[in-house]
Predict the 3D structure of the following.
Amino acid sequence: MVSLTVDGIEVRVEPGTPVIEAAARAGVSVPHYCYHPGIPTRPAQCRMCLVEVEGQPKLQPSCVLASGDGMVIHTTSEVAEEARKSVIEFLLINHPLDCPICDAAGQCNLQDYAFETRQLASRFHDEKLVLGRDRVADDILYFGDRCIICTRCVRFMSDVAGDDALIVAQRGHKAYIDTFPGRDLDHPFRGNIVDVCPVGALVHEDFLFKARAWDLDRAPSVCSGCSTGCNVTLDVKENQIVRLKPRYNPDVNSYWMCDYGRKHLVMSNRGARAEVPLVREGDRLTPASWEVALDRAAEGLSASSGGAAVVSPHACNESLFYFRRLLDRVGIEGGSFRVDQGDTATLEGFPKLQLRADRAPNVSGAEGLGFSRADEWAAVSGGALLVLQDTLADAPAELVDGRSFFLFLGSRLSPLARRADVVLPVATFAEMDGTFANFEGRVQRFQQALTPPGMARPAWMALSALLARLGDGDGTITEARDAFAALAAATASFDGLDWDAIGFRGVARDTATVGEGA
Amino acid sequence: MAYPHDHELEVRTLLSRHMGDPKARDLETWRRYGGYEALKQAVEMDPDEITTVVKDSGLRGRGGAGFPTGMKWSFMPKDDGQQHYLCCNADESEPGAFKDREILRWTPHLLIEGCLIAARAIRAEHAYIYVRGEYFPYTRILNAAVVEAYEAGIIGEKVMGSKWSCDITVHIGAGAYIAGEETGLMSSLMGGRAEPWIKPPFPAQAGVFGKPTTVNNVETLAAVPMILSNGADWYRQWGTEKSAGTKLWCCSGHLVRPGNYELALGVPLGEIIHDVCGGPPNGKKVKAVIPGGSSTALLTADELECVTTYEGLAEAGSSLGTASPIVMDEDTNIVAAIRRIAEFYAHESCGQCVQCREGTSWIAKILRRIERGDGQPDDIDTLYHMCEQMTGRTICVLADSVVFPLKSSLDKFLGEYEALMPRSGVVAGA
Amino acid sequence: MSGRIHPAVVSAQPFQLPERDPDAPLFDTEAGKERVEMVLSRYPDKRAATLPLIAYVQELRGWVSPEAMVEVAEQLDLTPAYVRSVATFYTMYNKHPVGKYLIQVCTNISCHLNRAEEVLERFLEETGTLEGETTEDGRYTVIEAECLGACGFATVVQIDNEYYENVSPEKVPEILRGLE
């Protein structure tokens, strides 16, 4: 370990640690553009992170300067601040200053630093270079005039994605970012270039002009696109998810996520939802209060014995847990789920991050709670049918035929689901708190980002209320942490896990116990 | 000036002795002139002995920076089991400089011999000669000499019949000044954009193809054979303690006899301009001289008594650079001249560092505007501020290179700038 | 190309020639294959052949089209985008077709001090074209060049691969006649 001083604060780091990272550990944030901790090459070209090093005549780029014992660093000395201010001035001379229509406004490093260094007037009296906008992928636009040529995007593609498809064309003040003509980016992880862009030069077209950064609510979450469980932030405007951004987690997805994940959830905003409990009146489903619907469900289940259960690997662990308890109550064993399959893709520079074939976030959790993956629909006929969050869109009619009672908990109603005796409208994962277990059994929490529509509730809440009516358990659970505590106490594969300890980085489960059942 | 031109101040060492003599390009004649004798000696020597001689001679890099050559060689690792490379920098593109061209076109075998001796000293078995693309006619001459030397067993397997082998590959650029910067050169040689990289890693640690590399200028390498043959002391008969030997000068601009001259280091600059080159034509007076190529600070007519050594020109507030004085007579529009230099740097900036990418073109825009009479009151302050912020802030020294001529012209010829300013716009500060 | 080129100098062949064929095949001929192989033999890394192969394209065709960049990329297992980033960095690679005679007039400092702008103007006048554009008959492209490295012999003009030194505006017509 070496010891160095950054702005008067002593910090100990591994020898060779870049000073910018040592400074961060001392709580000092050094402004930067080209440096990105997730991109291995460090060209030190933006010259924004220059710091003063005592005993060295020139300012040094802290992104590549190796920490040495006894180094004394000043990041806010007059000469360092002047240099930084000057970089901002240089960057702004050809910048269009179109913040009012720029998607990055409010979360733009150029805007922030320009504001911090109070550069509100320009000494530039000449004509700005105009580059206009271009397309670099079918879903990504490039605004050349805003670009500061930090080359993070280029280096993400070459160093992390392993595809030299994005380049700097020309040189000097004529340089710009481009693809080869007619060969737009088609890499399944290309969307990360938008995230690494420190300004508004690269923009997702489906987000273009959609929201101002300061109008967005954000919630830490987990991508439900596949079983990898990338840590994400859900950006929400007016109770709609407008985009997903990867959230750093070195054990899962680093700084990245795939484009499939980015898109599938935004798409899920669409379509009609089940918003009120429904109960069967003859051949019709009619709206009812939760009281009435739960009473009817309790009645129907009390009169049933045995049957079949279908769940979805999109259901969270807490819901699956209470569903399992309900099945025990009704005398149904096992239960099956189906997993949509898709193409896989791997991020070369961080191979653990894959778009996995299992297009569901909680396969491992469902297995851990005793449900099994099946291609066929319920093998058991007769008795009750209980369905948790599978839409039954692809299910055969025989699944429903001849059941003594059919309880459906879901957020959308397919024709087959409409044959239920009771429908309980449930929240999607984005509308509640809960946990998923990813492909390697890692348990990860997500936080509510949206208000559920109408009367929809978390399934674990509805199920705990229903169980209470059947004389089982702890009464209605209203907090996901309590649901999780009950789950952890009762389930071998979740033994010893703690809601707070899971936090928003997740906890790796002992994979040996995965799949042993409840 | 065409060869031969004889001036009493000229020293015709091997560096320039055969310039103007087309026969010197042939191996047979070159051998008759004593060519490859130094190499014969070198292949029998221990590499470190060669380095010691060059170190003792005081030879400094002739590409502009003036780093001691022997010391540079001594940075190369020993017994590291890796391939080492020598890169000969023949990407001569500093405005004002045209000396390497003369070596390439008149005495290519001298360069080849220098490359091989240097390669031996740094334990390299492959040397690349990176020639600027525009130099087609001279590359052709070099190519012929390289092929001839291969066929004669001088380059390749068992150099001069010794146990040591060394290849030479000639490689040409394609129009990029920045490829003359040593890391830019290596980036280009590796098949990339000629973008300089931040050190470390230093070339001697991880240079071209990730291997220990030394980059030397053409003139530096061409001086090596005679130093090895005649010894360090012989070379030190010219110049000073810190600036030993002779130097090929490139004199251009307003001169009666522009051209290349080999001179001992230390001649007063005024003598080179007036005596050797005959001063400006038509009896005009000198207004300013940029002494070391376009990236050095400009001197006024009153400052020409300085001696042309590395230290002498540093004392005068400029630098020896590539020893390429660009002379401007009394009628010269200084603003236009500096504008033209600024345009060059804006055109040649690789575009990595913000200060350089944006600053060079901003300077050129301001100067163009001042030149056409549209100056703004704060332009001069802005130019000064940029000079400050473009010095020592970037990966390489291209940004600094525009600052030297610009700032010195502001300091010494501010009146010329002010005279172009619109009447209403009173120039502030400076 | 007449005669076999020595591998040591294969990466240093003139590539701005008046004789060229815009449709010349590149790498699927014997000569093309030999060129690639020879170039590759001089470097420990394939990528190093990027400049020599771009130059080869221009040597044959007079310019480097996007399609040719794709072919270079294929030869070296690079992406076409990478080849483009390299090709656009260097000014001597023509990204558009140029006239049979590419006339480059240096206007940098030493030439600027010796009437270079007038020389440039004269070339434009005599050829009847605009800077950077090509005459309708495809004979001439006149461009302003940065330092050509022959400053003691200002004004310096390069036409294709040849240098013309001490060019004054008055000498321009004669130089053009010499090209006929």
Notes: The longest helix of chain A spans residues 78-93.
